[in-house]
User: What shape does this take?
Amino acid sequence: MSLDDAIYEVFGPLPQGAPGNDASTLRALDAVPDRDAVRRALDLGAGHGRTTLALARALPDARITAVEIHAPFAGRIAQRARETGVADRVHALCGDMAEIDVAAGSIDLIWAEGSIYVVGMERALTMWRPWLREGGCVAFSDFVQWTGSLSKEAHAFWAIEYSDMASEAAIRSRAEAAGYRIVSNFRMPREAHDAYYVPLEARVAELAGCADTDVRRVLEGIRKEIDVVRRFPDEAGYTFFTLQRGDGRAGAAGRYIDDRWY
Assistant: This one.
């Protein structure tokens, strides 16, 4: 079994591939200016399809393309869309989210919940901006450093596992430099993290006796992550950002109050 196969062996049966829940998805969506005008949306790195279906329910006039590189997951999204009666508005595309062909100015909303790291934040924001119509939005979540200084053990772990992890202020600065206005950002609550980590911990226990070397390697990394996240819950976690395409001037003027720009 290859390492990629081992990863899918572990994560395949799970309900989702990153922290998040429908409440957080809808909170980020509610921040999208004129959200009811969204007609074309992309859900990039859609995984198991939870976000795709949440968006389809919340945006009844929108057509959503869910892009997922793992063919079984893409097939599952299509099946769930049929089962929930939204197959006429949801298209599951099996492909690399960094290589899809999108016409300039054709998209109202780009969604990347827990997946922007796959492309890299600066590259993704630069690539996505031309796809958006004027005033179009991007919403994404990512693992973020919440404190000014990580504990020694947490720092050692994340330096290896996610060396690109940044602070919320740094991400806002990168987004402005890429030509976006920050509409909103918020830290995902414990419930959103547990929606991912609780089933993941159960899956690790289920596979504890697996003899495959690659699976055991994946499980060991997950155990370390769960341990660090549980012991240092206030130091790092998922933050959701909602951005709006700016008028071409990087760093558009505004005032940051609470979790919104005015």
In short: The chain is about 40% helix and 25% strand. The first helix runs from residue 3 to 11.
